[in-house]
Design a protein that fits this description.
The complex is a heterodimer. Chain A is 24% helix and 27% strand. Chain A is an alpha+beta fold. In chain A, the strands form 2 sheets. A 5-stranded mixed sheet of chain A has the order 2-3-4-6-5. Chain A has a 4-stranded antiparallel sheet with strand order 8-7-9-10. In chain A, strand 9 and strand 10 (240-248) form a beta hairpin. Chain B contains 9 helices and 12 strands. In chain B, the strands form 3 sheets. In chain B, strands 1, 2, 3, 4, 5 and 6 form a 6-stranded mixed sheet that branches. The relative contact order of chain B is 0.15. The chains are: A alpha+beta, B alpha+beta. The interface between A and B is large, with 55 and 60 residues. Chain A: One of its GO terms (cellular component) is nuclear exosome (RNase complex). Chain A: InterPro entries: ExoRNase_PH_dom1, ExoRNase_PH_dom2_sf, PNPase/RNase_PH_dom_sf, Ribosomal_Su5_D2-typ_SF, RNase_PH.
């Protein structure tokens, strides 16, 4: 128990259990409202936290149906600043990334302590950004990149989410990469290129024996079953992938499926990059 | 060196190198005699930053508000979770007569009963998170700072002392007698004719626990006022689903379609000011004369680091008359009786501003 916070009652509290008898059929809403190669609308703005060196806010539009929330991310960058004296010498800038879900961001209330999935996100984010930053321009210094996920990408109405967290994390990571790139640019930290994230997934919409198809920017609640997904962090002008995260279950014999999944991820990332560039030129101009 | 070189520093560097003279300059001797004294942020000493309130921006929380005062931005989400009475260690079944009189709106005594429940069962859980990169001094990965802990505790005690939330709203009833809708105590005391023993009495089966989580998105001074405004706005926005006891499943189930607004009593507003003293007090006991200090309303981050004495007054002027709910003052000896008396008027003015902003978002 953390005595430094207010913990509430000693007995365990339970999140509300809903009476599903009177509600409409939940299965019927499972259909994708966009073409398979279209990403959702995105809103990006820099300079939301004036006290930070750089900051950005990203919101991904909700899909058409009500009750589904989009992703809302807030990122702030502090630094570059000198490392503490106790730290060992580093010829490069030391990146430290923190990703934290707000307690009210998901269906179930999140605690204040970081859980493994948040650490996982932070590690992937760091890998994605490290490839973009010109690190040896700041020896002996560090930069903190802090992202709070104000609202997670989750369907509120789905009562039985069938292990969707993994796929939600993919979407969250791609958002984190894009918003962090905007905040880094806002902080004036030199990068070789603007990195942006994109997600592609292999989904099976109708039944277990239907042929799977590849979609971009998947929402788990819009698809019957997600077989595999991959999140790509991509530098467009260099044509380089800085981080690739693949999860799922694909036969090893079918490499074409795998490569086309990555290609679609890159396509999604290019879309995000357009928004990023627009946002940054708007701030400059 | 015979000539002293004239150095001109840009304002941000000046503010960083010598913050105290920087702030003092504008207050003590304004650049021209016909200009009023001003702070470094361009405001007059008794000028607050405008407040803006946005509600219902979060979809997973039962109530939420985003409050912005200048560059300080706070996001507050309220979420209800159920606490079955079996998991309350020292649960005392509610005295039925007491509940009845409370429902009929009696005197102050009922207030005490309701508040006892809130406090005894710890039904309000406010927590403030500063370590969201909101300012360079708050970085994540460490336990909450002293400031974050103090703020949470202050919000917690103010929530209880103002009686903002009524315990009646948080009770979930089981009424075997008649009513199916148990969230509301509408038909208390009726339909109880054929009571078949103790088990068939109307009883409280669970309580809603309100988790009130606050996140600073951006920090530029005066955290308590902004956080408190966010708490009040979010609670006013809160709608809890209608809950009832399902005897077959032996749990509380909530309705997806029906929800009930939380009754929030009044609209208390916190108003803080910091005292900026001309000289850094080196000698103890030396009285600071009139004119050697300034009361800076709604201080920003730079001013907060330079001021030691702070006063916070919580007033409620929602029903015409201004009532003082709490006064907190610490860090010095300058604010005396007269100043506090005068400050009530300042706080009342601020509370009307905040009230307007909160009501504008609700309409």
């Amino acid at each position: 128990m953390d005595r430094r916070r207010i913990n509430g009652p000693s007995g365990a509290t339970i999140p509300p259990v809903f009476d599903d008898a009177g509600s409409q059929d939940l299965a019927s809403v499972k259909s994708r409202s966009r073409p398979p190669n279209a990403t959702r609308k995105m809103y990006l703005r820099t300079g939301v936290t004036p006290s930070a060196s750089g900051s950005a806010y990203l919101e991904i539009a909700t899909s058409a149906k009500p009750g589904v929330s989009g992703l809302k991310l807030n990122c702030s960058v502090h630094g570059p600043r000198s490392l503490p004296r106790s730290a060992p010498f580093s010829p490069h800038i030391v990146l430290s990334t923190h990703v934290k879900y707000a307690p009210f961001s998901t269906q179930q209330r999140r605690g204040y302590l970081r859980d493994p999935s948040e650490r996982d996100l932070a590690i992937h984010l760091e890998a994605a950004l490290r490839g973009a930053i010109i690190a040896d321009r700041w020896p002996k210094s560090g930069v903190d990149i802090i992202i709070s996920i104000v609202e997670g990408d989750q369907d509120r109405e789905t009562s039985k989410s069938q292990g969707d967290e993994v796929w939600d994390m993919m979407n969250a990571l791609s958002g984190c990469i894009t918003v962090a790139a905007a905040a880094l640019a806002d902080a004036g930290i030199d990068c070789v290129d603007t990195v942006a994230g994109g997600v592609a997934a292999l989904v099976q919409d109708a039944g277990d024996d239907s042929t799977p198809s590849i979609v971009v920017d998947p929402i788990p609640s819009e698809h019957g079953k997600i077989l595999a997904a991959c999140c790509v962090a991509y530098l467009p002008t260099r044509d380089e992938v800085t981080n690739l995260w693949f999860r799922g279950d694909l036969p090893a014999s079918d490499m074409d499926l795998y490569t086309s999944l990555v290609e679609n991820g890159i396509r999604a990332s290019k879309n995000a990059n357009c928004v990023l560039i627009d946002c940054l030129t708007e701030t400059v101009g | 060196m015979t000539t002293t070189p004239t150095v001109s520093l840009p304002a941000p560097i000046f503010a960083k190198v010598t913050p105290r003279p920087f702030l003092l300059r504008g207050l003590a001797n304004p650049p021209s005699p016909d200009l009023p004294p001003a702070r470094t942020n361009g405001r007059g000493p008794r000028e607050t930053r405008p407040i803006s309130v946005n509600a219902s921006s979060l979809s997973h929380a039962h109530g939420s508000a985003l409050v912005r005062v200048g560059d300080t931005t706070v996001l507050c989400g309220v979420r209800g979770e159920l606490l079955p009475v079996e998991s309350i260690p020292q649960f005392r079944p509610l005295d039925k007569n007491a509940a009845l009189t409370e429902k009929e709106g009696g005197g102050g005594n009922n207030d005490v009963i309701g508040r006892g429940e809130l406090k005894d069962y710890d039904l309000l859980v406010p927590n403030i998170e500063l370590a969201t990169g909101s300012a360079p001094q708050f970085l994540p990965g460490v336990p909450p700072t002293a400031l974050a802990q103090t703020l949470s505790t202050r919000v917690y005690s103010l929530l209880h002392s103002t009686g903002l939330v009524e315990a009646g709203d948080l009770r979930v009833w089981y009424k075997p007698g008649g009513g199916h809708k148990t969230g509301e105590d509408v038909d208390m005391g009726e339909g109880e004719g054929g009571g078949e023993g103790e088990g068939e009495e109307d009883r409280v089966v669970a309580y809603w626990v309100l988790y009130i989580d606050l996140q600073f998105a951006s920090f530029d001074g005066n955290p308590f006022d902004v956080a408190w405004a966010a708490v009040v706005a979010a609670l006013r926005d809160t709608r809890l689903p209608v809950a009832r006891w399902d005897p077959d499943r032996e749990t509380v189930v909530c309705s997806r379609t029906e929800s009930r607004k939380l009754n929030v009593r009044g609209l208390p507003v916190a108003c803080s000011a910091a005292v900026f003293v001309k000289k850094e007090s080196s000698e103890k006991g030396a009285r600071t004369k009139q004119g050697d200090y300034w009361l800076l309303l709604d201080p920003d981050r730079l001013e907060e680091t330079l001021c030691r004495e702070v006063i916070t007054m919580v007033v409620d002027s929602s029903d015409g008359e201004t009532r003082i709910k709490s006064i907190e003052k610490h860090g010095g000896t300058i604010i005396g009786r007269e100043l506090i008396r005068g400050y009530a008027g300042v706080a009342a003015k601020r509370s009307i501003e905040v009230k307007k902003a909160v009501e504008a978002m609700e309409s």
